[in-house]
Amino acid sequence: MDLEKLLSDRLAPAFAAVAGGPVDPLVRRSGRADFQSDAALALARRLGRPPRDIAGAVLAHAVLDDIGVSAEVSGPGFINLTLADRALADLVAGLAGDARLGVPSTATPQTVVVDYSAPNVAKEMHVGHLRSTVIGDAAVRLLTWLGHRVVRVNHLGDWGTPFGMLIEHLIDLGEAEAAQHLSMGDLDTFYRAARVKFDEDEAFRERSRLRVVALQGGDERTRRLWRLLVTQSERYFLTVYDLLDVGLSGDDFRGESAYNHLLAGVVDDLDRLGLLRPSGGAECVFPPGFTGRDGAPLPLIVRKSDGGYGYPATDLAALRQRVGELGATRLLYVVGLPQRQHFAMVFAVAEAAGWLRPPVRAEHLGFGSILGADGRMLRSRAGESVKLVGLLEEAVARATDLARSRNPDLDAEAAAEIGRAVGIGAIKYADLSVDRTKDYVLDWERMLALDGNTAPYLQYAYARIRSVLRRAGTAAQPDAPIVLARPDAPIVFAQPAERALAVELLGFAGVVGEVERSLELHQLAGYLHRLATAFSAFYERCPVLRASDELRESRLLLAGLTARTLRQGLDLLGIRTLARM
Ligand code: ARG
């Protein structure tokens, strides 16, 4: 149940009657009441009427008391909305009895293709792939939980001219030796060595060129060696996913090469549709509205002057396949913002060709960079891109040390478990809690801190509630949903902090619904942080275990519901909770 939406729905007709047309009532949480509507202020100028008058007229029309809401005009023209305790208690009791915490499964399931992670064969994953993997995984989890059919696609970079030199280098090294290097995750050394030879050795360059031709021509030995490169890299990426605790598996790899057989058809069809223009020896589409700095129309190159197809043609083929064969109605691409124009142009061309049309929607979920403490792109001390595995291992090691220093009695196994959940959780949360389009600074101290908008703060709030519930004797299994002794006991609001927590708990459904549309995962993170903060305030002022019977049950219920909501919310973000920390 989405309270803000319910209140909006109730106020909207009243506003429409007063304004003579549709108005968004702009309902939000309020410091003065439970909620407030600010729309009267915005309307004042248009209607030429004082905002307080408008607010009063709206309230004369609005039907609210049947849902236990009282309203009053306040300040310059806000409408303050307050839920009766009884109504609030009933709503919270409803949540407590609902396995989905008030979040319904979608009534309109979609097939959603999520294109994410997408590292490149024989190249180290970099922090951009980390962001894509973490954001994509959270999107997959959220949409799946809401009942959509979600197809994960790992659009591996496994094709293109660099494979000529990579295969030649593999031949030089010998297969066994090369496989060894690659499976050790020493991808960058491998790639760089090939690159150096390519740049410096004319004969190697020529061999590489011939090798690309052989690869494209389907030469059997070349194909086998290429497969070897791909398989070894995939194996390595899977170990990273495992460490990162994301749900990508071997079945989700669908590399660029998978679309080869469709590329000629894409170009032919664009030609038939009259969309193709030759330019500088290449075949291009000039989608309307895209111009370069000099004002000249920008081409999307679908066939290069050497006759080969590239990245854009592959994305067009993939889009067509996702809509046509997979039946996708929503296409998500979790890729860094530097590729914004690429996707805008691919979508524009697909629309012009009629391959992408309503109700099917394509969205580029672009994201910013991870910066080092110096505010510049994160780099290793040697100035190279930071190796992802090293970053993840450092997070786990730091979190394990912190856990041990806080609790010296922890045995090694428990410390390792906490270190992993907290370290990886902290990395993911640092990423998911900021507006995805923004850059952010990787700051170990801050992201591992037990206070602030961090994963450890939320995990700790959860563990603390578990401990209260354990002491109350209500939690059976460490990981089972929390069942209270008297789930139908009445909820009491003796203190404002209890009420505030209850209102916060009711906000979960609204936030999840909003994130389903926007995929702004930081909204969910921000909500969980507000919830945990409301819980802390509650826990400070409202003794639970020492309270009298009725109050104790009521507070246990609020605490238990908070734990479940935190756990579910963190789970949607791909972050683990721990029963003890
Ligand atoms: N492999 C690409 C890279 O590392 C990302 C691919 C993103 N997905 C896509 N459909 N183009 O930049």
Tell me the number of strands.
13
Class per helix and strand makeup: alpha/beta
Number of helices: 21
Oligomer: single chain
| Rg measurement, Å | 28 Å
The poorly predicted ranges are: none
Could you give a short account of the major beta sheet?
4 strands, antiparallel
Name the beta content range. Answer: 5-15%
Bound ligands, each once? arginine
Average pLDDT confidence is 91
Distance between the termini: 32 Å
- Main-sheet strand order equals 1-2-4-3
State the shape: globular
Helical amount? 40-55%
Q: What's a quick, concise take on this entry?
A:
With 581 residues, this protein is an alpha/beta fold. It has 21 helices and 13 strands.
Can you walk me through this structure?
By secondary structure, the chain is an alpha/beta fold. The chain is built from 21 helices and 13 strands. The strands form 4 sheets. It has a 4-stranded antiparallel sheet. Strands 6-5-10-11 form a 4-stranded parallel sheet. Helix 5 links the parallel strand 5 and strand 6 (about 150-155). Helix 6 (about 160-175) crosses helix 8, helix 12 (about 310-325) packs across helix 13 (about 340-350) and helix 14 (about 390-405) packs across helix 15 (about 410-430). The longest helix has 25 residues, at about 220-245. The protein binds arginine. Arginine binds near residues 115, 118 and 315.
